[in-house]
TrEMBL record:
Residues 3-190 form the NnrU domain. This is NnrU domain-containing protein. It comes from the Bacteria. The chain crosses the membrane at residues 40-59, 71-94, 114-143, 164-186. InterPro entries: NnrU_dom (IPR009915). It comes from Pandoraea terrae.
Length: 192
């Protein structure tokens, strides 16, 4: 569990700099330059992510079961992951109304993904991993929303055609991950 927690601290800590230390971040970008900051940020994120994957794998080898998830938890998780996938697509497809409405669809998608995995998992490692991501995503979303309000940021309305692209890409990504990649990468097949 120590490796998992260390990875979470590094990864989410790196991703929390803008939440808790915006002036420090700005100073570092000025000192290192945009590319230097991005390089540091990327290396720290990769190290943290690697430790999370390794630590979660270690913890899964010796699970501490806190509760047995209900059968319906998998179904709720599947639905929430579908919505999360559409939100993630909305973050990257320009000119869509979902981004205009949500403002920060990637962080909202991470919230739903973390919540989904808490419905489907009852181990201590899962609660630590997905609980940490849920807390971070809520804090990140609230901070970004306040930053947008302070700067009077508005996101373009988008078009129905772009919304359709978001939904198709989100559904395709969800299906690919749920039916192929989740089992291959994580060793758990959500649909048996």
């Amino acid at each position: 569990m120590t490796v998992l927690i260390l990875g979470l601290l590094i990864f989410l800590g790196t991703h929390s700099v803008r939440i808790v230390a915006e002036p420090w971040r700005t100073a570092q970008i000025a000192r290192l330059g945009p590319n230097g900051w991005k390089g540091f940020y990327s290396v720290a994120s990769a190290v943290g992510l690697g430790l999370i994957v390794w630590g979660y794998g270690l913890a899964r080898g010796h699970p501490v079961v806190l509760w047995t998830p209900p059968t319906w938890g998998r179904h709720v998780a599947a639905l929430l992951m579908l919505l999360s996938s559409v939100l993630l697509a909305a973050a990257y497809v320009p000119g869509n109304r979902i981004k205009a409405a949500v403002a920060h669809p990637m962080v909202a998608g991470v919230q739903l993904s973390a919540l989904a995995h808490l419905f489907a998992n009852g181990t201590l490692a899962a609660v630590v991993l997905f609980g940490a991501f849920l807390v971070w995503a809520v804090a990140s979303f609230m901070t970004a929303w306040r930053r947008d309000r302070a700067a009077n940021t508005r996101y373009p309305a988008g078009t129905l055609a772009r919304d359709a692209v978001v939904v198709v890409v989100g559904l395709a990504g969800w299906a690919l991950f749920a039916f192929v990649l989740h089992g291959w990468l994580i060793g758990v097949r959500p649909f048996g």
